[in-house]
Amino acid sequence: DFWSDPNEAQKVMKTLKEKKDVVSSYHSLELIMDDIDTMIELGNEVNTVEEAKNAMEPLAKILDAVLMGK
Predict the structure, then answer these.
(1) How far apart are CA 44 and CA 62, in angstroms?
(2) Which of 8, 9, 31, 55: CA 20 to 30 A from 15?
(3) pTM for this one?
């Protein structure tokens, strides 16, 4: 039984959490990349330097937060 050895169960649960955290971070990055792709497409349509500059700072903050694990 999995729970009959609490130490081993704790190790497995810790490993599981670490792997879930990695998957969650990856998923967050995927969503950000989708948003960036959309902004690039819109930028190509609108094609203004000012709009590109306005989009860079919020994206950099989101990416930084994800990479820092926040």
Answers:
(1) 22
(2) 31
(3) 0.55
> Are residues 40 and 55 in contact, defined by beta-carbon separation less than 8 angstroms?
no
Per-residue pLDDT of the chain (70 residues; tens, 9 = 90+): 889 999 999 999 999 999 999 999 889 888 888 888 887 787 777 657 777 777 788 878 878 887 887 6
Cβ proximity of 3 and 9 under 8 Å: yes
Q: Strand ranges (DSSP E) for 7-64?
A: none
Q: Which of 32, 51, 54, 53 is nearest to 43 (CA)?
A: 51
Per the CB < 8 A criterion, the answer to whether 52 and 43 are in contact is: yes
